[in-house]
Amino acid sequence: MSTTTDKKQKATIKEQRRRQWRMRQIRLWIVEGFVVLVLILGLAMGIRHASKEESFLSGIEEEVHEALNPAAGVTGSLVEQGEYDVTLMALGDNLIHMPIVNQGTDAAGNRNYDFLFEDISGYLEHADVKMINQESVMAGNELGLSAYPVFNSPTEIGDAIADAEFNVVLQASNHSMDKGLDGLYSTIDFWEEEHPEITLAGVTGEDQETEIPILEVEGITFAILNYAYAPNNDTIYPSIRGHLNILSDYDADTGKVHVNRLNPQVLEDIKEAEKSADVVVVCPHWGNEYWTEIADYQRSFAQQMTEAGADVIIGTHPHVVEPVEWIQSENGNESICYYSLGNYVSSAQREICMLEGMAWVTFHVTPEGVTIDREKTGVLPMVLQYNYQCRMEHIYMLEDYTEELANAHGISHTLGRALSLDNLNQWSEEIFGDAVISKNTALGR
Q1: Does the pTM exceed 0.85?
Q2: DSSP letter at 104?
């Protein structure tokens, strides 16, 4: 197939996606408009019955509020549906090193990265909210593709994410400004123009107002908040502010970052999100690279976020996994915190980086509200397998990983020995502990 034909087909697929998204929005507006019309007519009829006016108006007022503000509460929509579960899955850093860029590029220069997600397709099909941390920007292939220390990844990476049907992309990282503000804007434009069906978090475009991203799935609304500790700089320049969500506090005059102090805006955002969503998910890009221990400031931030109203905290950045904890604040709020899921895909050369995690949260929905089902919530340990060229071969669940696979892992060229399955199991037990759940639990088998 020629390159021109390939591009035409991809353009057709993207246009179909945009039309489908627009049609879903139009259908939603029509339904909402019809509900409001019915309620207004009901209100007009009720006014005629003076003896029942007070109780009738009270009921109508409540119904109108629920119809116009579905995120304010789930009771109205849940009475008919009864009890059911909604699941959230999340992956760590999609870290696109050059071996991965080259792996997805054919001799004619065409690129496709669908292979990145083939091994987890069953989990993506089962989950309702599907999140991934896109570590690098996609500022435009014409600018030249690059990796560490200054990343610019192919836009086809984003196409693969969309084709795998992720519905949330986290774009706030310490590499968000690798190609400057224009590179960040280009990345935002790519997501909004090519894949408007995906909820983008952590960044805001040139002419946009900062808004809390809201995703509605199965009648449940999720607020997705994403922050980077800083953009690989100890100074937050004025031009960045309002475009990249910053986790750490900084001096308003000098822009100097105070890494160990939480940005007050984060807590304000969480409190605001709690008003309009059933579930508040906070995704901080934080921690110390290659540390499996939790930093003191991470614990402090997690406590403050929980007290403010965070239900789920999903951390990224260290490139290694960190513990999973249930957090209870003094005001009675509770959250589950995944301090770091490690990398999802990379060409990292450290043994510990081959162990990674998939966050899996099951929400149980009843007419009374939404709660987390602890028995079906936890982390699925995974192993990244690549060859001697550091090109990805597969993602395996640790419970399925074998000594034979460990012996064949390409990292042996760096280690001077085979990857140790014993080490992987030991690290998983020490770091994740009781938070580990099986694939059968996650998939309801």
Answers
A1: no
A2: T
Which has the minimum average pLDDT: 61-65, 152-156, 280-284, 394-398?
61-65
Q: Where are the alpha helices (DSSP H) in 195-293?
A: 264-276
Omega before 323 within 30 of 0, i.e. cis = no
Q: Where are the alpha helices (DSSP H) in 48-151?
A: 53-68, 75-81, 98-103, 121-126
**pLDDT, tens only, 19-60:** 544 455 555 555 455 544 545 455 545 534 444 444 444 443
Separation CA 306–CA 261 (nearest Å): 16
DSSP classification of residue 247 = -
- Of 397, 373, 379, which Cα lies nearest the Cα of 337? 379
d(CA 378, CA 319): 19
* Chain Cα centroid distance, residue 57: 41
Q: What is the pLDDT of residue 238?
A: 95
Query: Using N-to-C axis directions, what is the helix angle for 155-163 and 180-194, rounded to 10°?
Result: 30
**pLDDT for the residue numbered 235:** 94
- Residue 35 in 3-state DSSP? helix
